[in-house]
């Protein structure tokens, strides 16, 4: 029986063109940002407001290759796990906590038909 689980599903818009990189030992990965927006109604005024949260996505292997084809503004659904780590201090910059979504699979969606799947990239 599985007692704990680290799974996340996000649906939102790609915030910029993906950045393809390579580790020192040749493993390829892709980084891209994703914006999700949550709407809330103010109980006192009755007005709606939106809050946007930015997520850092990282894909490896075949997922990285598929993610590299995304473009800014693409509407996608991402499945993966949350990963936290500390970046050590470097130069004049202090150490900082980093939160990323390690992407296992994603689907490019049709923004005009919100939720209809167009194509998919998944880990092999």
How does this structure look, described?
- The protein is mainly beta.
- The protein has one domain (8-118): Nucleic acid-binding proteins (OB fold (Dihydrolipoamide Acetyltransferase, E2P)).
- It has one helix and seven strands; from the N terminus they run E-E-E-E-H-E-E-E.
- It has one helix at 61-67, and strands at residues 8-14, 19-22, 28-41, 48-60, 75-87, 96-109, 117-122.
- Strands 1-3-4-6-5 form a five-stranded mixed β-barrel.
- A hairpin with an 8-residue loop joins strand 5 (75-87) and strand 6 (96-109).
- The radius of gyration is 17 Å and the shape is globular.
- It starts with 7 loop residues before the first strand and ends with a strand.
- The mean pLDDT is 89.
Instruction: Determine Rg (CA atoms, Å).
Output: 17 Å
CATH class: Mainly Beta
Strand fraction equals over 45%
Shape: globular
CATH homologous group name = Nucleic acid-binding proteins
* Class derived from helix and strand content: mainly beta
How many DSSP-defined strands?
7
Give a quick rundown of the structure.
The chain has one domain (8-118): Beta Barrel (OB fold (Dihydrolipoamide Acetyltransferase, E2P)). It is 6% helix and 57% strand.
